Amino acid sequence: MKQYTLLIGGERVATEHHADIRNPSTGEVVGQMPLATEKDLDRAVAAANAAFKLWSLVPDAERAQACRDVAEKIAEHSEEIAHLLTLEQGKPLNGLGSRFELGGALAWTRHTAELSLPVEVLQDNNEGRVELHRKPIGVTGSITPWNWPVMIACWHMIPAIRAGNTVVIKPSPLTPLSTIRLVEVINEVLPPGVVNVVTGENAIGAALSAHPGIAKMTFTGSTETGKKVMASAVATLKRLTLELGGNDAGIVLPDADPARIAEGLFWGAFINNGQTCAALKRLYVHESLYDQVCQALTDYAAKITVGDGLDEKSVLGPVQNAMQLNKVRELVEDAKARGARILIGGEPQEGPGYFYPVTLVADVDHGVRLVDEEQFGPVLPIIRYSDVDEVIQRANSSPFGLGGSVWSADPERAKHYALQLECGSVWINKHGAIQPNAPFGGVKQSGIGVEFGADGLKEFTVSQTVLS
């Protein structure tokens, strides 16, 4: 069984203790995660700080080329990393699974490599010249989740290094191996210490977010953990980018065509087995279409094959871990007890692995946990409504505000209502279709700051005004 190592200052660093990483499809051990100590973390932060002194002075064009070189390394090793990702995360190699995730990581890396933040001239006249410069912050700490570990690692690392920062990344203890391998690969083309990886349980993440040598924290994960990261930043006033939980609402207007939107609704909700922050998690359907939409979604869901991620026939894989599986089961059972109608699924599968079938739940409303809470799994509650203005208020009643969508045969009408949703991103006749040139972030308790594009790159800089 392979024992993985930390990567600090360009060198592999062995640890005294390790933890088993298991395949959620089978329960088999697929590798051992190194358990970093706080001394290891101190060493990583010191290496990143030393590298920053040189990396921050590298000309912009050279940093852009370095990011292009990183992209080529990711492309070269994409199948290897995708296979490792499937082993530890569970998602299928095929379809919208691990190969898709590696493709996304590559696309975001290539796009970010071409971004730049030129000097802005705010004034140039007989009263003087005023320039706005964007400068790197320092060492960026990154904590990534288990749902899209490789792609989100690139979302955190690539803009940081593109802007001239260095990185210490700590992946989820459930899916650390693909991130370790990713960092090893990109260290083949980056100077030592620019990107370092430490792994371990949650305590090492807490130490990272509180570390005085970290100038900025980037975190993707639950709102409750995000609050802890924010609290730990207070002592040193760290910069923060937090992409947190969501309970995204989709609203089907009465003029929509159920047959045409069924596929988009399904994948908006069930991409990555529903384990996506910006997945569709509450679907409101006008009463005139309710039964038709329920039937169209059920017909589509019945065609989806759920199985071991290494099986090329699998379209969806298992829930990633036992805790999340239990949460999904608990929410569905609560909905059943409150009179919900199960259209398809609703019972855990027998045998090894954390498998739960695609589940559609009808005849639920606010006050049922499945509607009020984020399920983060392969379950979609479908809620009937009669008044569009009133349903906008209900959609906005959540403390979260990551994404939302409106579905209609009339895009302009849909846009009218979409603009009323309280969320950082809103889609029309699709859901969750993020792209590297469009800023992405949440409002309310779904986060602080944005990722992607020039606005996301600015999050990894501080501004300096030069007056002459």
TrEMBL record:
Belongs to the aldehyde dehydrogenase family. SUPFAM superfamilies: ALDH-like. GO terms for molecular function: oxidoreductase activity, acting on the aldehyde or oxo group of donors, NAD or NADP as acceptor. Pfam families: Aldedh. This is Acyl-CoA reductase-like NAD-dependent aldehyde dehydrogenase. Keywords: Oxidoreductase. It comes from the Bacteria. It comes from Gellertiella hungarica. The active site is at E243. Residues 17-466 form the Aldehyde dehydrogenase domain.
